[in-house]
Hints:
Elements: H1 2-12, H2 24-43, H3 46-51, H4 53-77, H5 79-82, H6 86-94, H7 97-104, H8 107-117, H9 135-138, H10 140-143, H11 145-156, H12 158-183, H13 188-191, H14 194-205, H15 218-267
Amino acid sequence: MRKIKTRIDRQLVIQSWPYGGLSPMNWVIVALILLSAVLFTIETEPLVFNEYRGVIRAANITILLAFALEFILRLWSAGETLGIRGLAARTRYAGRLWLCIDFLAFAPELVLMGLVSVGIEVPVPVDGLRAIRLLRLLKLIRFLPGGRLVVEVLEEVAPQLLVSLLSALGVIYGSAVAIYYAERTHDPEHFGSVVRALWWSVVTLTTVGYGDVYPQTSIGKALAGVIAILGVGIIALPSGIIAGAFMDRLQAERQRKSEQSLDEETDA
């Protein structure tokens, strides 16, 4: 039994595959993820879906069952390389972000389809859960080295990005309040409350500027200019944080490879 667990674990966990790249089982999972996205796209076209309804639904159920089997096998064999033992430890392991994504990629739709098949009425239509299948695309990140690097960098700079987000929300709210006082009497339809002014504040600070709402007074226009300039900084701040973190990570990776190459030459 332990040998079987080890083999399954090597197939599912990329770091455990001894031959580099993806294992055959992981290639199958990647293919199923891409097929799932294709099926989701086809299901939105009534002409194609109505003609091949049975085939599409059978293929989707097969994919759901395959993802469920993968999830169960991943939990069952996890202890072989990660040292997970017992129900409590496996429950904590299942609560990790990627395992939660794996679970949401199949469980809600599969459970709902099962309830409908036995005649139980549910308030949510099965078709309403089609979009949740897009979570399966996030599974691709696990199989791509570049995707894992992106996740690691985002986790590293998460505190700075949170501060950036809170600052952006503060500026958006403050801009809405300022334009409300400047324009409320001239354009009460769009600036008659802070709630109404928030739309203009968001599209201005994000540099979208649809032009459907704009200030009419001199003070409002001056504020709009300042707020638009602040919007450039709001967009640039998180981009700079992420770009800087990527540069640091790539530089560290190059240095590591250089030192490794130097050590190999010294040993030779």
